[in-house]
């Protein structure tokens, strides 16, 4: 790897990430955001045993690829514009890659221009939880799967109507199943086996 490319990756890529995801006004976002269990989940030190799916970190490492583990369990972020689902326009459902819980429908996916798959709402608000994230010298709202506690991405208040929200997700945190949604009640979907 050339020295110039390494310098770019080390110094400019984090800056691009911070600009793309924005530094949302927390109070405004909390007002607009879908409330999970009527309260914003703010503790990043939560124990994982409160989730329906519990595995040790060693078990997660055996199940997930290293990239998936870095995102889902290590709260990482993938590169924008070069991830699997950024420009996916197929009809179907996006599931949690860690536990198979249905999360988002292609019907609420839109092109946000940020480089990550973006949705204006989850299938049901109870499928995701919000947590305060103070990394990268800013306050953001992290989105985790409500079934296994895995990191999915963040939510911002710069999305389209009707919610005004942008659920900015990592492709490595999702599994997509193509399906005709005209005959599907997305709110009644079951958990799937993850590969």
Describe what this molecule looks like in 3D.
It is a single chain. It is built from 4 helices and 9 strands; from the N terminus they run ααααβββββββββ. It is an alpha+beta fold. The chain has a 6-stranded antiparallel beta sheet with strand order 3-4-8-7-6-5, with no helix packed on it. A 3-stranded antiparallel beta sheet has the order 2-1-9, with no helix packed on it. The longest helix is centred in the first third of the chain and has 19 residues, at 3-21. Helices cover 21% and strands 21% of the residues.
Short description:
This protein has helices spanning 3-21, 26-32, 57-63, 66-72, and strands at residues 92-96, 102-105, 109-110, 118-119, 128-133, 140-145, 151-156, 166-169, 174-178. With 195 residues, the chain is of the alpha+beta class.
């Amino acid at each position: 790897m050339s020295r110039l490319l390494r310098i770019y990756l080390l110094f400019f890529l984090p800056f691009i990430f911070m600009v793309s995801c924005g530094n949302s006004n927390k109070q405004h976002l909390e007002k607009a955001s879908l409330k999970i269990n009527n309260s914003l989940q703010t503790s990043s030190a939560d124990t994982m045993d409160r989730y329906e799916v519990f595995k040790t970190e060693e078990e997660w490492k055996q199940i997930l690829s290293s990239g998936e583990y870095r995102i889902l369990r290590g709260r990482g972020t993938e590169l924008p514009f070069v991830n699997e689902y950024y420009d996916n326009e197929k009809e179907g459902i996006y599931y949690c890659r860690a536990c198979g819980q249905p999360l988002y429908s292609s019907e609420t996916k839109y092109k946000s221009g940020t480089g990550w798959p973006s949705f204006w709402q989850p299938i049901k608000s109870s499928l995701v939880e919000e947590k305060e994230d103070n990394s990268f010298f800013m306050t953001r709202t992290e989105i985790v799967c409500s079934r296994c506690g895995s990191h999915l991405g963040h939510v911002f208040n710069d999305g389209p109507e009707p919610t005004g929200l942008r659920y900015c997700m990592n492709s490595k945190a999702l599994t997509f199943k193509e399906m005709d949604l005209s005959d599907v009640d997305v709110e009644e979907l079951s958990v799937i086996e993850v590969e």
